[in-house]
Structures are given as C-alpha cells and as structure tokens.
Amino acid sequence: MVLGISKDSVKSHAKFRDKQNLPYPLLSDEEKNVLKLYGVLKPKKMFGKEVFGTERSTFIINRGGILVKEYRGVKVKGHVDEILAYIKDNVE
C-alpha cells in the first residue's frame, strides 16, 4: 500500500491528488504529529527567517508494521524506480 502524508490540509491534498491523478490516498497531518514521530520536520531558511519544512522522505514499512527501509532527503527524479527495485528484491 502506498500513502502520501504531509502537513497540508485535506482540501489541498484533494486538489493535488485530482490534478496529478494519483491512485493512492494522501493523508493530512496539519498538527504535524506523524511528521514529528518520523523526524522529518527540519529547520530551513526562508526569506531570512528560520522555519520548519518537511524533509521529503520515503519509509517502507512491512506488513507487520516494522520500518524496514528509509530514504531521507530524496529527489523525485529516479526515486520511484529505486523504491520499486528495493521492493522487488526485498519484499515477499
């Protein structure tokens, strides 16, 4: 199962999912609870101020709920192929 999660609103996710024609759910974490648990809120500079942004990451969790692989600070280009190769080679 694939899920996307960010601090964006449910309404924002619905618009993005529809525009991109995504076949999987996008979850809203406006309170940033899950983002904090996974340690993906990172400080960055924006217009000279320090703010917290979300580090683009991928987590592979097995059927038993165990985190088996994580990718931090990923770039979009080529990442899907990398994930699919990992799953093909490592997941039953």
UniProtKB/TrEMBL annotation:
InterPro entries linked: AhpC/TSA, Peroxiredoxin_BCP/PrxQ, Thioredoxin-like_sf
Gene3D superfamilies per the UniProt record, alphabetical: Glutaredoxin (3.40.30.10)
TM segment ranges: none
Entry keywords, A to Z: Antioxidant, Disulfide bond, Oxidoreductase, Peroxidase, Redox-active center
Record GO terms (molecular function): thioredoxin peroxidase activity
GO cellular component: cytoplasm
Origin: domain of life: Bacteria
KW Secreted (keyword) present: no
Any single biological process term in GO: cell redox homeostasis
Pfam families (UniProt xref): AhpC-TSA
Segments forming domain Alkyl hydroperoxide reductase subunit C/ Thiol specific antioxidant: 2-68
Function: Thiol-specific peroxidase that catalyzes the reduction of hydrogen peroxide and organic hydroperoxides to water and alcohols, respectively. Plays a role in cell protection against oxidative stress by detoxifying peroxides and as sensor of hydrogen peroxide-mediated signaling events.
PANTHER family: AHPC_TSA FAMILY PROTEIN, THIOREDOXIN-DEPENDENT PEROXIDE REDUCTASE
Name assigned to this protein: Bacterioferritin comigratory protein
